[in-house]
Automatic annotation (TrEMBL):
It comes from Pleurodeles waltl. Residues 20-42, 49-60, 98-111 have a biased composition (Basic residues). This is Uncharacterized protein. Residues 1-131 are annotated as: Disordered. Residues 115-124 have a biased composition (Acidic residues). Residues 61-97 have a biased composition (Basic and acidic residues).
């Protein structure tokens, strides 16, 4: 007797062969798969090309490193951000120095008035340092 599934064409193939039902692919699915495969291979080829150029550059020992357009753009963006951050920090420090100098000026004017006020300013400064 023939195995139950073998009578039906393309049906269950029996446990002897260890395979399930063979799926029939429509043309559409194949095209889609081919497209995905194509994209994947293109990416890999691009990567390979980039690596090749980098290696060649290294071999030649020229100063500048070979980079792709995307990498260059990201690098420029990062440097811009770094510059911006540095500028902000500088401004912040300048403002802090200005404020500090302002408090010193106040204490100097108080010293001229009298010694009692001078003691007060020293105490205030100590509390500021502690806090």
């Amino acid at each position: 007797m023939v195995a139950a599934g073998k009578q039906r064409a393309g049906g269950w193939r029996g446990q002897i062969e260890g395979k399930g039902k063979k799926k029939r692919k429509g043309k559409n699915g194949l095209q889609k798969k081919r497209g995905i495969q194509k994209k994947r291979t293109q990416k890999k080829e691009e990567k390979r090309r980039v690596q090749k150029k980098r290696r060649a550059q290294k071999r030649r020992g020229t100063g500048e490193k070979w980079t792709t357009e995307e990498e260059r753009n990201t690098e420029e963006k990062n440097t811009e951000e770094r510059r911006e951050e540095y500028r902000r920090r500088e401004e912040h420090e300048e403002n802090a120095v200005r404020k500090r100098s302002g408090t010193q000026r106040k204490s100097r004017t108080r010293r001229k008035c009298g010694e009692e006020e001078e003691k007060n300013t020293e105490e205030e400064q100590n509390t500021k340092k502690m806090g």
